[in-house]
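Form 7-S
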Amino acid sequence: MSRTIRILREVPRTDGGRVLVLLLALLLAYHLWIEVTAPGRIAEGVGQDADRYGRFAVDVELDFPPERFHILRLQAYGRVRGTTGTVLHLRAVTRAGVDALARTYWIEEIRPAVAPATAWRRSCVPGAYPGRCRR
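Output:
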């Protein structure tokens, strides 16, 4: 019998080995739970109004008002447009970004963004960027 097989047989017989096996089982269960619940966090219509680069705006609903940590963490997936209560508004998010966001356990829902009608016009200087200003 090889040394590796003998070690693997003896590990569960020790207290430390049992704790290790339990921790590995809990970690596996956590990742399985994240994978199973992730698609349910994405609302219908997310990504339907993508721009020519495949990016779109989303609203990320949390159970609590977002703090600096949450805002910095979500900046990895898109540009933060602001917050309203427990909703963090992101733009320039890709489909891969939405999939990664859905696997974050503290996010309740990801839905298509509802942008204020004047938000784009305020940031757009007419004539400065031809073709970029929406009317």
